[in-house]
Every structure is written in C-alpha cells, then in structure tokens.
Amino acid sequence: MLGIYAQHAQTYLLVLMISTTIFFALPIFIAPLTWARLMLWRIPEDKDLAVYFGRCLGAFILIVEFLMLRGAGGEGTAYAFDVLFAVFGLMLAVHVYGAIRRIQPITETLEIGFWALLLVLNTCFYPVPSA
C-alpha cells in the first residue's frame, strides 16, 4: 500500500498545495476571523477559537523544530535553512503589519527585532558548499 501511486507523487503534491493554499493557508493568513465564520465558528462567542489557532500554530512550529533537528544532524541542512527563511520572513511581515495597524500588544511589536535578527543569523549561518 505504501507508495502505490508513487509515480504521481509530484502531481499529488501540486494539487494538495494548490487546494490547501486556496482553502486554508491564504484565508487564515489574510482574514482569519472571516475564515473562522465560514467554518461555522461563532465569533466572538467561541473563545475556543484562540485555543484552536494556537494549537494549529504550535503544530506547525513543531514541524519546523523537527526540520531544524534533522538539519542539525546533517540531513537536509540547507532545506531547513530555506524553510527558516520563509518562517522568519513571514513572521517579520506579520509583526510589522500588526505594529502598523496597532492591533497587537507591545510585546508582539518588540518581536520585530527578534525576527529581523533571526533573518540575519540565518543568512550568516547558511550552509554554503565548500569551494
């Protein structure tokens, strides 16, 4: 059963990526409360929505942590750094947006420096093949 359709793996990934981007990633990133209403969450009554979003975010952070662990062990190191560029860059953008709109506490605005620093460190430590 494992790999029964392996010859279609790239097509599967492309279709899955397009679908989840359209129905989950972009709506949650751009308009999380609108997405939540469409998924039948009662806003603002459902206080569990914050817990739900927090657990979802935590799950994805754990995936990134796993990629870093693999990279630290020598497997897929450059890929882990590439993922971290995306994570750090998007988190920087999210926090700058929140600061400009004044929709987050000061602790989140202060994180802008943290994400910027991580981008710089990621650049400095990026594994470049030896010449």
TrEMBL record:
Transmembrane portions of the chain: 12-40, 52-72, 78-100, 112-128
Top-level taxon: Bacteria
Swiss-Prot/TrEMBL keywords: Membrane, Transmembrane, Transmembrane helix
Protein name: Uncharacterized protein
